[in-house]
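Protocol step 6 of 9: fold each sequence in the batch and record its structure tokens directly after the sequence line. For illustration, a two-sequence batch is reproduced in full.

Sequence one:
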Amino acid sequence: MPGPRLLVCAAVCSLFSAVLFAQQPTSTTSSPATSDPQAVALLQESLTALTGGVAVSDVTLTGSAHRIAGSDEELGQFTLEAKGTQESKVALTLSASTYAEVRNVSEDSPEGSFASSNGTVYPLAQHNCFTDSAWFFPPLSSLSSALSNPGENVAYVGQETLDGTAVQHVRVWLTVQSPDAVAVKLIAHLSTVDWYLDASSLLPVAERFTTHPADNASVDLSIEIRFSNYQRTDGVLVPLHIQKFLNGGLTLDLNVTSVSMNTAPSDSDFQLQ
């Protein structure tokens, strides 16, 4: 993935580098920008299992949404869109609220914005824009970009069990070209994504990464995305059930009812006005 995932954001580095330098695990920062052949092979087999070699440039998913926030629950509809591996849009229309979020690129840097029910648009914290923009669609995520982007590292963690399913655990993260070791560790910390692939089919079962409060990149909040009920659409296996967990609690339960791919949306579709 060229562009934003390859560049160090100087403002983010200067603000948070001291804390993240101390926190970043050695396992995700000590390797150079080269990848474990076993891990690369697993990602390649997973992508082939998903797409069967079909080229996917963009996707739109729609369906029913169930949002949980503590004791508050809402039902409604969602639209998820992605173009390439850098642009995405999440739109929720729920019983008592709406929410929209976009991820895109500006001047070769990752960015994003969001709007809730009042319609006011706010910027996403840039330190939350280094993981997958298309977290809901593996073929347009780091699972794919790690195979072509020389700046993305891939490591094989091992075979594990996730909720009773045997999985292959593969980790992806960025190594930027910088003489500043603190900056290298910072971007690795912000960009790390862990993939869990079904040990038999190699279809993604889950991905995990961290998000952070808007004003504090040193606080990690765990995100887990679960994928299930894969069905083939235009030759591509698409997960029709997607769940999002925050610190272990289910926050979003999505059931896909419509899938369209390769419709060539405009970049303007990934902007909030």
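Sequence two, same batch, same settings:
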Amino acid sequence: MPLSTSKQITEQDIRSQDIFHKEWLYNNGVSKTSKMLKLTSTGLFERFMNAISPAKRTWNGHNSSGWKEDIISVNGFDERMQYGGEDCELGDRLVNNGLKPIQIRYSAICVHLHHSRDYKNQESIDKNKSIRKATQSNKVKHTSFGIEKP
């Protein structure tokens, strides 16, 4: 959502869950686009939209979830990683461990607040890509740099 909208959100807006209603979003600067279907689809239409979504079934941290025991089984996030891809690398290990992602982009309500990414830099992105490439090519299921350390 736009920075101007993100700055307007109050604790009461969150508690009342007004920020999940399209009228509130429109009245506070969010553009009217087809993306609003992700917040408003229900029933058969919701299932239909999930089925035809061109988005790949991937693990992306902004709106992903998993069972605690599955995340523990791969030892959680690889703590060597910084901003950029750490969520996807965790998802790669979950898939390597036999889990199959499902797509529920029209079922799970998510709004993303605008925020700066001052911590993002090319060095950490390159390092993360290298770790993720190794996870994918070597079919890594467990990291030694996660919840439990050797």
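Proceed to step 7 once all outputs are recorded. Observation for sequence two: DSSP finds eight helices and no strands in the chain.
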